[in-house]
Design brief:
- By secondary structure, the chain is an alpha+beta fold.
- Helices cover 27% and strands 29% of the residues.
- The protein has four helices and five strands, in the order αββαβαββα.
- 32% of the residues are buried.
- The model has no long low-confidence stretch (mean pLDDT 97).
- Bound molecules: tetrahydrodeoxyuridine.
- The site of tetrahydrodeoxyuridine has 15 residues, from α2.
Length: 130
């Protein structure tokens, strides 16, 4: 489970002193590469970033662009789903049928597609001139 392991390891490095809630995320690209991220909080609370954003940033910095699978992990009674903003961030680089696996420390719990998480995503169609 390389995606799970990458997200699990990244989560351990999360900087979450304010919420105490560490999150890890990993994305697999169409080229088969895996990039992971963790939440990075800030004393100026709104400046904190989510684990998914970190994984996306790592992917983009490497030159990859298309996400074919996502996994998010946290230590919570109910598995974490990406926040609203991260759903839109993922939609920038992933199709609606991309599987988002939700995991806790003991392993994956279930999965859902990005389109199920974000129906009606804002997209380039909305930018066409009228
Ligand atoms: N968080 C993530 O990193 N990803 C999510 O999908 C949900 C929330 C982080 C943000 C904040 O650092 C902490 O979890 C508590 O909200």
């Amino acid at each position: 489970m390389p995606l799970f392991e990458a997200a699990r390891q990244a989560r351990e490095n999360a900087h979450a002193p304010y919420s105490g809630f560490k999150v890890g995320a990993a994305v697999r690209t169409e080229g088969g590469q895996i990039f992971a991220g963790c939440n990075v909080e800030n004393v100026a609370y709104p400046e904190g970033t989510c684990a998914e954003a970190g994984a996306i940033a790592a992917m983009i910095a490497s030159g990859a662009r298309r996400i074919v699978e996502v996994l998010v992990i946290a230590d919570s009674p109910v598995p974490v789903t990406p926040c609203g903003g991260c759903r839109q961030k993922l939609a920038e680089f992933a199709d609606g049928d991309v599987k988002v696996t939700l995991a806790v420390l003991s392993g994956p719990v279930g999965s859902i597609t990005l389109a199920e998480l974000l129906p009606g995503a804002f997209n380039t169609d909305h930018l066409e001139p009228r």
